[in-house]
User: What shape does this take?
Amino acid sequence: MSPSVDFQGLSLAELARKTLADAAGDHPPTFPVIDASVHPRPRVDELREYLPKVWQGRRLPAGDRYYYPNPLGDSIRESFSDAGPPGSDPALASRLLFEEAGVDRAILTPLTLGLLPDGDLLAAICSATNEWLARTWLGEHNPHGRFSGTIRVTPTRPEAAVAEIEKWAGDPRFVQIGVPLQSLQLYGTSPFFPIWEAAARHNLPVLIHADAETGVELAPTPAGYLRHFLGFAAYNPINFVNHLTSFMVGGVLDRLPDLRLVFGDGGYDLCVPLMWRVDKDYRPMRPDVPWMKRLPSEYIGQHVRFIAHSMEGPDDAVLDEWLEMGGAKSTLMFGTNYPSWDFFHPSAAFAHVEPEGRERILATNAIELYGLSAREEN
Amino acid sequence: MSRHVVCRVEDLPDGAHLIVDTGGRVGVGVYNIHGEYVAVRNLCPHAGAPLCRGILSGAPVSDSPHERSWAYDGEILKCPWHGWEFKLPEGITLTDPPIKVKTFPVIVEDGMLVVDMAPAARPSPPAQATAL
Assistant: This one.
């Protein structure tokens, strides 16, 4: 499959402005880095093979962010190959991440074509995606054992989601479950509780990560659509606030002390002000939410992790203070977001943070959360 | 001035309280909580309100987001300014980490209630959860 020609004879790869080289910094870490955010993607023809017969012949959505095509290209240039769209080539990803970017291990989270009006179809796509991931990136393309995976489930079909968790929970290659950031209801409300209960029972963290757009989801802001990608990219991760507030105030974190939430699109920078706001009047308003037993900020360290995003954070001059405020050394994890345009390069990430704190963010916090054991060199 | 005679035992029935000037800045409220006596410093640890002017009530409690039950009836002192809830006789909030209002023991001597402002061994406040 050759890359399609898009404009003035240039391929999509040649039109992609962002490169791995642009993203690189001057401070390659001296310890093994855990990349908690890598997005493999099955080719559509590949995914079909894993769908049940009744769904195989159906047209599937493209899985792109088509309201907001990124003017710089959605993927880094190096991620394009003849094998298929960016993210579909495990050999290429292994080379770029492990050999060029200096990542040691990667947590794989395939996206699942966004919310679909037919939850049954989405549940089938999730199942097919998990089966595909288990056989390919976590199977034949994982001789190095550096890949761990995410069990994709659809919150719009809680019974199917729980069944999918039960199916894979015993497979140690899967280390978390994954759901879209987009949702028509807040995740702290009761329809979703069985999913979080199953995740907690199996000690699997729940990754909440923006998925593709299909037109079924709500607008990215409560006041509608921002006009341009820049506004969308800056704003959209903030939507974590909706779910996190709902999880706390809805008592989910009290009922499930083992539940762990990972917000995969960043947002750590907005977590501290959110805590100030919710903490402020929690005590007088406790009778209204008597199932909520703790000062909201107390839940963060126990239950919540953020994956750092290349777009957030202040200048180096106040970086340490900013990280200290939110307890970053225990709550923040690192992810490249490969193959996305906003690739966060380990050599540029938190380069001026003191060594112990940097290692916690780029490695230790993920090792602890996912219970990753030391990797044996093959 | 470490001991203050408050009133006769029968003058403070269950659920009643008296605010007593103990010579300090704010005084204390002396409460009968289902037969247990306690003196509460009349100063909310949150924002300095005269706590003992608040009502004595109960509190909704729950372990599930669609259920509420009434508990601690007559044991919850609600601050008149911001509604913070302190469970008596312990003097602690229902929230975690707990906040404690200063309390003093009340003893019965010759049929009288006496506040002991400097007890030999005062129970220490509960430890606050360590900041993360």
